[in-house]
Amino acid sequence: MSKPLDIDYKTWVSVNSSAELSGMSLVVYQHWDTRRAASIGPTWRELEFEALPPAIIPWCVVMDVNDQEPHLVYRFWGTGRVNVHGQEMTGKAVSDFKPAKVSNAIIKECEALIATKLPQLFRKQYINSKDIEVTINTVRLPISDDGKNVTKIISYALGDQLPSSSDTFFN
Question: Is the pTM of this model over 0.70?
Answer without folding.
Answer: yes
